[in-house]
Write a structure and sequence with these properties.
143 residues; alpha/beta; Rossmann fold; 5-stranded parallel beta sheet; 6 helices; 5 strands; 42% helix; 19% strand; globular
Length: 143
């Protein structure tokens, strides 16, 4: 029976997040797994020769609505600075994002979520769906 693995990428501008998931998805494809990428950067994901069976837009953080000059001055000294600056300090935005992830999980029915710099996807999955956090230590939220 084919199992669905949903990859989540919410934040971060570099393609390193995407490349980590790309390598894992390529290996899972050999094991009868359906792979879905929920990405904050759909255009970047589509530009690569991709092993994903489906690429969809991840829920958008409030950061996406900020003008470029405002985004450039956000502090990145700590993970807390980044997450607060991009919307985690906004309760209503967080509730909306969590609701969007839960709806996505309900419709796509993943057997596993693999998250790279996707703190709210990970929070929504935790305790509901098996979860693997990948990436570097800086972008991985505490368990």
């Amino acid at each position: 029976m084919t199992k669905t693995v949903l990859f989540a990428w919410e934040l971060g501008l570099g393609l390193g997040h995407l490349m980590n998931m790309h390598r894992i998805a390529r290996r899972l494809a050999r094991h009868d797994c359906r792979t879905i990428l929920a990405s904050s950067k759909v255009t970047a994901a589509l530009a690569l020769q991709t092993p994903f069976d489906e690429i969809i837009q991840a829920p958008k953080w409030p950061l996406d609505a900020l003008p470029e000059e405002r985004r450039l001055i956000l502090s990145s000294a700590t993970l807390n600075d980044i997450l607060s600056g991009v919307g985690l300090a906004d309760r209503i935005a967080v509730e909306g994002l969590l609701g969007s992830w839960l709806e996505m999980f309900k419709s796509k029915r993943p057997a596993l979520v693999i998250a790279d710099f996707a703190p709210l996807a990970a929070f929504a999955a935790k305790g509901r769906i098996p979860l693997v956090l990948i990436g570097n230590g800086y972008t991985s939220t505490p368990a």
